[in-house]
Structure formats: C-alpha cells, structure tokens
Amino acid sequence: MAAPLPNVSVPGSAAVVLLSSDGSFNLSADASAGFDLGHSLAPLCTLCCCGFLNRMLAVVFMVSLAFAIVVGNVVTLTVFVQTRQSRTPQGYLKVSLAIADMMVGVLVVPFSVYTEISLMVTSAPPIWYQGSSTSPATSSALGGLVSPWQPCMLIGPVFAGCTFVSISTIFLMTVERSVAILWPLHKDSLVTRRRTLLLILLSWAASSLLALAPLIFSSNFTLEYNECSRMCNYTPLMFGSQLPSDANILLLFPAFDFTLLGGTLAINIVSFTSIRQYSRKRKLLSEGSLSDGGGGGLGGGGCSHRPSFSDIKAAKTIGILTFAFTASFTPIAVFVLGNVVGYTWCNFSFIAFWILTGNSCCNVIIYSVRDHRFRRGVTLLFQRDNSPPTSEKN
Predict the structure, then answer these.
(1) What is the pLDDT of residues 341-366, one digit of tens each?
(2) Which of 8-22, 82-96, 235-249 has the lowest mean pLDDT?
(3) 3-state percent breakdown (helix, strand, coil) of the chain, nearest 5
(4) How many Cβ atoms are within 10 Å of 243's Cβ, its own excluded?
(5) C-alpha distances in angstroms, 227 versus 122, 220, 231?
(6) Cα–Cα–Cα angle for 382, 388, 390, rounded to 5 degrees
(7) Is 220 left (phi over 0), alpha (psi -120 to 50) or beta?
(8) What is the pLDDT, as a whole number, of residue 288?
(9) DSSP letters spanning 141-207
C-alpha cells in the first residue's frame, strides 16, 4: 500500500507527492533533477516574502505577540485563582478561553519563531521542513523509507483546536449571559458550575475532534510549515495539478465557526433587544410615566426580577468579543475557501493567519476595559503583592 510522505515544493509552485511502494519513488523530472544535483528546491514564496529583512521583521512581530498573549492570559488565570469572586460560571468560561489563548502563545507562535530563526541562521532548513531535499527520507531497519517526524502534525491541530475552543466558548458565554438577562430569576438554577464545566469539556473534546477531521477522515491531507503564512497549515496532497476529490473537507472549519458565530449573533440580538426594552421601561419609571407594578420579566417587580447592571454590561462585553472574533476569523475563512478552489495567496495568507492569532491577546484587553470584576481582581492582586508584611503594619 502506498504511503504518502510530505509534499515537496518544486519550481512553479507545483507540489509533488512522494509515494513509497516497494521502495520506489515517483518524481517529476524537475524534482528528480533537484535531488540528483543535491540542490534545494525552490521555495514556495518569493524574495519579497521570504527575504532576510522580511523574516527579521516577522520574528520581532511574533515575539512581541507571544509576549502579549502569555502575559495577558497569565494575569487572567492568576486573577481567577486568587479571587473568589471570579469563580462563577462566567469565570470558568473565561478561564477556558484564556487557556486556549495561552496554548497559542506558548506553542504555536514560538514554533513559528523557532522555524524562522532557523531559516535565517542556518544554510540548510530543518530536516522536517517542507521542500527540504537534504534528507527527505531515511532508511529504516526493515529496508523501507521513513519520513522525518513533522512537528506540524502537533502544532497545526493545536492551533485549529484552540480556535474552535475560542468560538465555542464565546458561544457558551453568550448563552450564559442571555439566560441572566431573559430569565434572571432562574439564572442560578439553570446555569450551574457543574453544567458549565461539563459544557467546557464537551467543547474541548468536539474542537479537538474537528481539528483532526481532515487527517482522520481523509488520507489526502498532511500538515507542513508554510513559508507564506509562517504557520503549520493543512495541505492537500496534489496528484499532478489536481486537488484530491475530498479537498472540500477543509470547508468544515469555516462552516463550524460561522454556524456558531451566527448563533452567537442571533442570541446577542435577542439579549440586546431585551436590554433595550428594559432600559426604556426603566426610563419611563424614572419619569413617572409608568407605574412600578408587580410582574415578572424585565418590566416590573423588584430588583430580583430585573437583570443586574453587571449582567447587562457583561452581555455587551461578550458582544464586543463576538465582533472581534468575527473580524479576525473572516480573513482566514476567505483564505480557506480560496485555497479549496485553487488560489494561492501568499501575502494574504500571512495577514489572515496572524490576524486570527492576534485575537488571542485581544480578549484580555476587552476584559480589562469592560469587566469591572476583572479590573478589581487585578487591583487586589497587585495590592496584595505590594502590601507590607504584618509586622510593619503593626
């Protein structure tokens, strides 16, 4: 049975699939000549995309982004651990979102930094690097050929899975806030910590399975580091100039995200409509135009029948999170759709992938600006660190 090895980049951006069957290789003439002469095959991108200065600027940007992601999410997790007021269902969802963002800053971005630095300081690319002809495969003890382990087989699904966790967590946060706004009396009974933790675990499991779907349900995909996006990308194995028949499986990614984003948008519209009605009735009450009679819902009764100011502000914060994630994911969805159709957008792929990566540090910024509980937790955290010892206080 033929076993596909990673794609090899050849001049003209034509991908050649190495197929091992009884120890033989099927190569195009250009690729065979490249291996016989011992020269590296032409990269996928041009000098404008992969020049030394360009790589240096990219590394500086990546290091700065990784630092911002890690520091911001470390503060988020520390506030949750140190302050009891953050240990609510909404707080657990924020922790899930922070962990997903943290994994991007700890694994995904540093791997791109390492690869870019390796390409700058060494004359030969890493052994696993796509397009490397120095050691495309090594002999095994059984006489066959074994391709080097591809780190992107780990980094790629981690990035995709964390992206899916982020959007599913934002969806769950929207549902939690809508319950607090539409049914404030039943919020504590409907949204419990146990149910929230269960939903978080299901979110991580489903996101991980979806991230591995192209590799599980198809044998025509691999993961390799892309010189254009500077990230590990899912790559269909090209047979000549033809895409595999199941290349459309990559459309599962934007379909999943936009389905959840559409549901999140619909729930936000319902919640904001209720908030607007509540604000209008509260204004009429303050002007004396509407009697404050009994009744449930947003219109009457005591304060327990109305959503609190913090619930309303949290709903608006989640609305901003939804807008930010939609804006950051739309370019990558356009790129995936174009990639399935057959277009290759080198410069656009870098912009699309790293806009999505930059969203991992935007969530903390939105928390710090909008969430008063988070700001209070950060203040208490730093005050606790700077507080004098007990003996000095006495």
Answers:
(1) 777 788 888 888 999 999 888 887 88
(2) 8-22
(3) 65, 10, 25
(4) 16
(5) 16, 21, 8
(6) 125
(7) alpha
(8) 64
(9) TTS-EEPPP-THHHHHHHHHHHHHHHHHHHHHHHHHHHHHHH-GGGHHHHS-HHHHHHHHHHHHHHH
In the numeric block, the tokens 């699904």 are attached to 157
Q: What is the pTM of this model?
A: 0.74
**Which residue, among 47, 63, 57, 52, has the nearest Cα to 113 in the 3D structure?**
63
In the numeric block, which tokens belong to residue 179?
Answer: 């319950």
How far apart are alpha carbons 95 and 149 in whole angstroms? Answer: 33
| Confidence class for position 107, pLDDT limits 50, 70, 90 | very high
* CA atoms of 112 and 313, how far apart (whole Å): 37
Residues 6 or more apart whose CB falls under 8 angstroms from that of 50 comprise 43, 119, 227
Lookup: tokens for 345: 């957008």
Query: Residues 281-325: pLDDT tens digits?
Result: 776 766 665 555 444 444 444 444 566 666 677 777 788 888 888
* Residue 71 burial (CB count, 10 A): 13
Q: How many residues does the structure list for the chain?
A: 394
174-217 confidence digits (pLDDT tens): 898 888 888 877 888 888 889 999 999 999 999 999 999 988 88
| Beta bridge mates, 258 | none
Task: Give, in order, the Cα–Cα distances in Å from 123 to each of 39, 120, 161, 198.
Answer: 12, 8, 33, 50
